[in-house]
Amino acid sequence: METRMSMNPDAELTPAEMNEQKLVRLGKRDRLNAAATSPAGGAYPVSVPVTDTIPAVRARFGDLEADAVTGVTVGLAGRVVHSRNTGKLCFASLQSGDGTRIQAMVSLGEVGDESLAAWKDLVDLGDHVFVSGQVISSRRGELSIMVSEWQIAAKALLPLPNLHTELSEETRVRSRYLDLINREQARSNVIARSKAVASLRKTFTDLEFLEIETPMLQVMHGGASARPFATHSNAFDTELFLRIAPELFLKRAVVGGIDRVYEINRNFRNEGADSTHSPEFAMLEAYEAYGDYNSIADLTQKLIQDAAFAIAGSHVVTWADGTEFDLGGDWARISMYDSLSAAAGITITPETPIEELKALAAREELEIDHPIHGKYVEELWEHFVKGDLTRPTFVMDFPIDTSPLVRGHRSIAGVVEKWDLYVRGFELATGYSELVDPVIQRERFVEQARLAADGDPEAMRLDEEFLRALEHGMPPTGGMGMGIDRMLMALTGLGIRETILFPLVK
Description:
The chain has about 500 residues and is α+β, with helices and mostly antiparallel strands.
């Protein structure tokens, strides 16, 4: 087995050292292939006779006392992550995909001279190895397989990183496969995300929502204020856009009579990337006919609390840094205008002139360059209030001019029935009483088109097909959207590049 060639055992291998080890391993691959008795053997056999898994064997025999012999023979495979050769006895730690490990003991007495010599010559750290043998417990009480037969299942041509040294964030993100091999937290993140998404689907199914799929390539981007990615279809000879939201198609489904509908899929926004934003991200959107922004807030709270329970067995989740965060109970609902007024020390309403808002922004040394009232209100709110929100909080009733697809408030002029859910100080989800009047919707689209003509790259286009659907009649509806990646941030305490398995990097 090769040894690390770097003088510092905790250092990353240099490119020259990496290449030298690869050449050595390629030689072993060639020897394995030359010795194979069939085309299906060699360094990469088509299969190995696995009968058990490492987690299952550990669950069954994990309580063995030292020096115990079970008389049970198993065949299992795993990746070699530690190895020690001591003459007539070799030890290897085999790791399964979930990180569970078991010791393999390869002894002269069990396998013979030729097989033991081949193990020492051919097996490297990182290789996938099949072993068959009796389940025992070593003198030190370590659960082990006393190997009677073994076989390379897949030869690793590049060495593993040092498993005792934490990988850099850059390496973790760019080479997530190494992160998954190396770090328990990385594997836990994948499991948590899978459980959370499964929980979302179960909650929706229990509430009789239907899951559908909508187009990702669209001739008209819409459903959010965001800059799209553009591409070109050779078949149709037309410009297409990667979707920024599934909203306008999900609403078509509601028009068609699918009263409770949702989708979990990918969105793409050609904007900045930071600790809470990614150009490509997983999104949940749901619509409930005859609901409103209050009922959809109740639904959102249940979805997240159910997901927390699926991961942690409780509404209190434990973040990666050990902090406990309580997602239980009924979450607070506060007014955007009222909370801003209280924090700023002056009364701010939908009728407050934009000149006064500009003066307040200047006083606070905020640079806000936008022609509409609502943008000032929202950015001032973020400045004064957002940072103090730790517990899950629904921020209700937004300015009408920043929410062109939302119904006007039933009792407050100048605002819409919209909320944003903040958890840990970042926006996790948004919900609406949907605008279903096609005449007003057209007026809002026309205003958006004017903003686009004035140079706003995030303004929506006038979508005649969507308006035509609305003109066939859409019932009163509550709708919500939530980033799956951000939900995992709230449940795990991690940044977005950790909750996305393979994030986009330069």
